[in-house]
Amino acid sequence: MEFDFAEEQPKFLMLMYGLIAFVAVVGGLLLLLDVVPAWFARRREEQIIAASASGAPLPRRRKPREGVFALFFLLPTLLLLTIGLVVPAIRTTLLSFMDANSNDWVGLRNYGWMFSEDSIVRVLINTLIWVLLVPLVATSFGLLYAVMVDKARFEAVAKSLIFLPMAISFVGASIIWKFVYAYRGDGQEQIGLLNQIVVSLGGEPKQWLLDSPLNTLLLIVIMVWIQAGFAMVVLSAAIKAIPADIVEAARLDGVTPWQMFWRITMPSIRPALIVVVVTLSIATLKVFDIVRTGTNGNYDTSVIANEMYNQAFRYGQNGQGSALAVFLFVLVIPIVIYQIRNIRQQREG
Length: 349
Description:
- The chain has helices at 5-54, 66-95, 109-116, 118-149, 155-163, 170-180, 193-200, 214-240, 244-252, 257-268, 270-285, 289-294, 304-314, 318-348.
- By secondary structure, it is mainly α.
- The termini are far apart.
């Protein structure tokens, strides 16, 4: 199939306009943030030179109004947040109370559908399983890694290898693990690592991603594999921040390694643990790429973010897709509020 530039010209024009707008907005903001402070500095310097030449007293420097300067620097961010977050959130909330074509008002019917449709209830249960298991397991492995490699001989190398999956996109990691779970028919040579191990142990290969709920757990393994490195880095830094005198005092008291872990390490790294669990919980609630790449949401593996995409963009059910989006947003809010309160308590303490 030959490429027809004339047919694709509108797309190229749209892309060019987008690039021009991006350069204009970002360049304008950078120029504004550079020119305005420089202008004030030059004006101040000219006033000082003029006062020195005339022998007049130096002009007093007015105390800057912090609120005005803060508003000046925050205004672009607030504008972008309003356009990219607040307005879409309000619009999505309104669409969740309308029908599939966003024409007629249907009230809470979309939310009732969410909790009465068996397939969607399965989606909600899958999301709950993800949120319960991923933060717990990933944080546990991260803590185990952090304790094991702390002050080890090849600590830097070990941490780099453990953190390496974080450099891979969710889609790339899912493709890698699909090869691990790959299946070929009985009697054929298995290219999937997991099936090859099963065959070498005398078992029968199987299609791992077809059986529910095992397939959901296998997809969770991918998320844990990626996020355990993040948990390890944060918790390792928290462990190293424990004051040395506390550790030495505990050792002089004759505590065992187990007592050291539970009585010294765990209480000391509790704030870091909370940060890791909260961060992983929010990331898990929004998981989409792994499910989409691994099973496309089939075989009872779909989660809220994937089903939201299906309803809104594949099935044309704007109201139902928006209801799922709003419900996902509502699930994230308590976690964010808890984290904000926790940060305030730490600052006050």
